[in-house]
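Final paragraph of the annual report: two paired records, presented back to back.
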Amino acid sequence: MSYVLDTASDVSGAEISAVPTPPRVRAAPKPLSRPVFSAGPGGPLFPERGIAGRIPRMPPTLPPRLRRLLGLRRVRIAVAFVLVAATALGGWLGTSGNPGYPTGTFRMATGTQSGVYALYGTLLQAAVDKGMPGVRLQLDQSVGGPDNLARVADGRDDFGIATADAVAHFDGPGKGKLRALAELYDDYVQLVVPSDSKVKSVADLKGLRVGTGQPGSGVELIADRVLSIANLHAGRDLQELPYGIADAPAALEAHKIDAFFWSGGLPTEGIIDLTKHAHVKLVPLGGLATGMDDVAQREDVGARNTQIYRTSTVPGWAYPDSSPDDSVSTLAVANLLVTRADVPSSLVERMTAVVMNSRDAIGQRVHSAQLVDVRSAIYTEPLPLAEGARRYYVSVKP
């Protein structure tokens, strides 16, 4: 019999030496299904194993101290393996279970029920459900852009939509915390009158009853500026009534008002519904863009050195049932998706991605939203880009 010198120590620290090992004896061939390992006169080193196999027992010829030592080592190795596996599994679960942004319910201020802000918010809510697992976007109705800005600034909402002129004009608490995710789409200023109306320009509104939007709305801001350029003043030259898109179409059809202003994306459902059972037309406003910008520059610090209004066109397809259904020159102003500086950047980054990726789906209902593009979305004056939005645009930069 041969011996192997082993200098390992057992659990008591004693040194073990001269460990006997059985001589190597070549076993006779056996069927593969039931292998047998022989160790000569000392008996089998391992018992016979079937196909499934059994864990081999410790050789009975090894000293008790060595058996205890090897047993402890096997336990330690097994424990170490379990710990490593658990750590790796825990890391994998943590990575796969963490979407990289805060989850829960977040709020977005939209607008009146029949307006484009409300429709856009509903469509974006569906996109968030698909693109941001764990996030629920709660929509809050409002009277429009200025109200949305106040709600976001004071923390009632985390996101909101507002026009650039409303942003430049806003002077409420928390305005310094406002940030933008993207320039979305343009609002078009629409002055709606009956098809047989003699109104062909803003000046022709003198002496009439005009819906100028809800108090504190973006429509009211624009309508007041348009009327001031035409040197028309409420009470003296015409009667202003606080009708918004939710009730102005019905008031016009019922002859309670002679005209109404609206500023929104194309097409606006409230006007579409009106054209289906009433003959109406739009009054051209495109020639007022320069004068409107002058007013904004004079009244709003945030509008300085920034073009707020520009001339654009309402295409005939927007309201095919209007009479006439020709294209009409008008004013346009950009819409911004707004947030606060303290809203988590990771959430803002992901929200910006969803906005960009859902452009085509939302554009099927809000046609002007089809123009949303990463190359133009970054121009959010007069608001700075939110940090999370900036990260997104850098990541997708061509």
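The closing record of the year follows.
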Amino acid sequence: MVRGAGAAAALIVTWEHSSPSVSAAATARHPLCFTGARVVAAKSTTNGSRRQGWRPGTSTGETGPVLGYFGPAGTFTHQALRTVTQEEALAFASVREALDAVRAGVIRGAVVPIENSVEGGVSATLDELIASSPLAIRGEIVIPVEFGLYARPGTRLEDVRQVLTHGHAAAQCREWLVTQLPAAAVTEAGSTAGAAAEVARPGSRYDAAVCARVAGQLYELDELAYQIEDNPGAVTRFVEVGPAGSVPERTGADKTTLVAFMRADHSGALLEILEQFAVRGVNLTRIESRPTKTTLGSYCFSIDAEGHVQDKRVGEALEGLHRVCPTVHFLGSYPRADGGRPSIAVGFSDEEFDAAAAWVDGLFGG
């Protein structure tokens, strides 16, 4: 149990490591579907080993080339998926299982979260993208993170004493909860959608759930308040991940994602990596370190860069990384969700790269 200080002292957070269960009756009343799409929950065989999260042949959804996503239904990831397809989709209990299903060929791709404007990068996704055989990002989706308070029909705001939600949602709505529900205890669930499912269950000890509107609608709950997040304008970025292979054609408004490993821990090691982009006029939109999981102090760098691998400046930057890094994981070039085009400085356009190469060729008496 964690208590805040000062004005926040009234907000009580109780940590529960397992998600509340949903009864069979509640499941029958609230089928896992949204906007006409059938969602099939993929069966897991996770038993603690590194790569046994998914076993082919255990889901009715495998009869066709469907997409998967980090579930359950009613989450922001589900909402992002709906912008990609309205067809049947497989919900997975973890990012690892979703990406392993892509590797196994069970699904043609998976939608998973990768970055939040408040919480930063999603570690599970960043690590799992390079944990086994290569995968490729084919596109990105950015959606606003807007939370509401949802309760069983007939519940009033002043009646709420027990709130259930995911830990990240509780953190992002902390000020509102302290101000509007000072006497309420907030309990952490495995997901905001799972919290909504539990609150919808008749006889649940929880009065309300903090979740996305899609989850409140999915479980037929009443909306007691909306847009209760402390950071209006917050967004989460999701990526559609598929098998490594062909790269989408460049659009002029693209992004490239990669992971670069340092050759050795020494002064200027990170600078060597950054210089490959800087000297070619490539702007980075994200860079963060991740442990290599080998020894203490050993890190790799997950990077998003403006541009497409077919752009001369980006392609040459990757060539430079290949020279100075022992390992570079290219995770794809794909259209940007915001359609933003990079500002290319003088000297860094494809035409200028071609002209420079032609000039060098001419030095040999062409």
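The mean pLDDT is 83. This concludes the annual technical report; the extension proposal builds directly on these records.
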